[in-house]
Amino acid sequence: MLAVAGCGAEDETQEFARRAVESHVAGDPAYDASDVRCTPNPRPWFVEEQANVVICRVRRTDGGCDRFRVDLVRDTVRVTARIRLDARDAGCVLPA
Predict the structure, then answer these.
(1) CATH no. for residue 37?
(2) Which domain holds residue 20?
């Protein structure tokens, strides 16, 4: 069974990171690009903060999941995502 941190609707940052990782792995037969989950913005003391780093896990087609790190780079006009593989076969549960 798969457990994912942050049940419910995605926040905007989480959705942005998920879509970026989906694009990043699209076409790579090692991954199921339709099965990407990412951590949400942090909420210390119930006040949402803007994340600069998002962790995503991507289901591998041969089983298990790899973990990707998404660095969110902001300038005055837009946000871009720098994506890199953080850990192979890292498990399918995201950190809380």
Answers:
(1) 3.10.450
(2) 12-87
Our count of domains for the chain comes to 1
Whether 95 is in a domain gets the answer: no
Residue 31 has pLDDT above 70, yes or no: yes
| Torsional sign, CA 47, 77, 81, 20 | positive
52 occurs within a structural domain: yes
pLDDT single digits (tens) 69-93: 999 998 888 889 999 999 999 999 8
74 backbone dihedrals φ, ψ, rounded to 5° = -110, 135
CA–centroid distance for 43 within its chain? 17
What integer is the mean pLDDT of 53-61? 95
Q: How far is CA 20 from CA 1, 10, 16, 44, 46, in A?
A: 25, 14, 6, 25, 27
**Residue 53 has which token pair?**
């780093």
